[in-house]
């Protein structure tokens, strides 16, 4: 099997990949290809570390590589085919639609891809917005907790200062008592204690 895949006889854009095949290499320039996961599982890697896994959702598939093509920037992660199994333990083939020729050509030849790309980008934008909102909410909660901790710390400080004043008063009182006790003969003190 050349390049770790076979081309489907029913659709020249559909490729059936073996496990561990690199579809996209991180930090490389786009080559005019856009990928749509049709079936199976892909791993997302930053350097040698796998950071996510993509499984084909029913009927839609995940679009990959479009950001690099749209923005003209290097690929932000590596994408690799993964070995996957169904509930019976049978191997699931990794089937990926691969469209080549550059973004304009792909959209012109396959207009439905443009709609899919827009949907994908809108979903990513919504997910990013939700993530930022969630992080902002979390930061707000942390700030609220910090405010409560500051109030508690101020309260503890006041309480500590009050206790320090009371302790100073008690020490002063004891010093006075010590002075008074020093005037009483020891014999009388012992009689008072017993």
Overview in brief:
The chain is of the alpha+beta class. Helices cover 48% and strands 24% of the residues. It is built from 4 helices and 11 strands; from the N terminus they run E-E-E-E-E-E-E-H-E-E-E-E-H-H-H.
Mind telling me the CATH class of the largest domain? Mainly Beta
- CA radius of gyration: 36 Å
Shape: rod-shaped
Which fold name corresponds to the CATH topology of the largest domain? Jelly Rolls
Judged by helices, strands and strand pairing, the structural class is: alpha+beta
Q: Count of DSSP helices? A: 4
The CATH architecture category of the largest domain equals Sandwich
CATH superfamily of the largest domain: Jelly Rolls
For the largest sheet, list the strands in their spatial order. 1-2-11-4-7
Low-confidence spans: none
Question: H/E element string?
Answer: EEEEEEEHEEEEHHH
| Percent range of helical residues | 40-55%
- What number of domains? 2
Query: What is the mean predicted local confidence, pLDDT?
Result: 85
Domain Cyclic nucleotide-binding: 17-84
Protein name: Cyclic nucleotide-binding domain-containing protein
Pfam family, one: cNMP_binding
InterPro entries: cNMP-bd_dom, cNMP-bd_dom_sf, RmlC-like_jellyroll
Notable features of this structure?
cNMP-bd_dom, Jelly Rolls, cNMP-bd_dom_sf, Cyclic nucleotide-binding domain-containing protein, RmlC-like_jellyroll, alpha+beta, 4-stranded antiparallel β-sheet, 4 helices, single chain, 2 domains, 194 residues, 5-stranded antiparallel β-sheet
């Amino acid at each position: 099997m050349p390049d770790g895949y076979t081309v489907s006889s029913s659709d020249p854009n559909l490729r059936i990949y073996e496990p561990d095949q690199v579809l996209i290499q991180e930090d490389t320039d786009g080559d005019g290809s856009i990928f749509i996961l049709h079936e199976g599982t892909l791993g997302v890697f930053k350097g040698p570390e796998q950071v996510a896994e993509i499984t084909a959702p029913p009927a839609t598939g995940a679009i990959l590589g479009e950001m690099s093509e749209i923005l003209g920037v290097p690929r932000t992660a590596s994408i690799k085919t993964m070995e996957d199994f169904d509930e019976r333990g049978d191997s699931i083939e990794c089937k990926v639609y691969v469209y080549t020729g550059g973004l304009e050509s792909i959209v012109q030849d396959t207009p439905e891809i443009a709609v899919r790309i827009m949907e994908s980008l809108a979903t990513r934008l919504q997910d990013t917005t939700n993530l930022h909102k969630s992080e902002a909410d979390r930061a707000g909660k942390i700030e609220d907790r910090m405010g409560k901790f500051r109030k508690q710390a101020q309260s503890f400080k006041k309480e500590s200062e009050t206790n320090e004043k009371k302790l100073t008063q008690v020490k002063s009182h004891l010093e006075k008592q010590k002075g008074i006790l020093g005037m009483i003969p020891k014999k009388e003190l012992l009689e008072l204690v017993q």
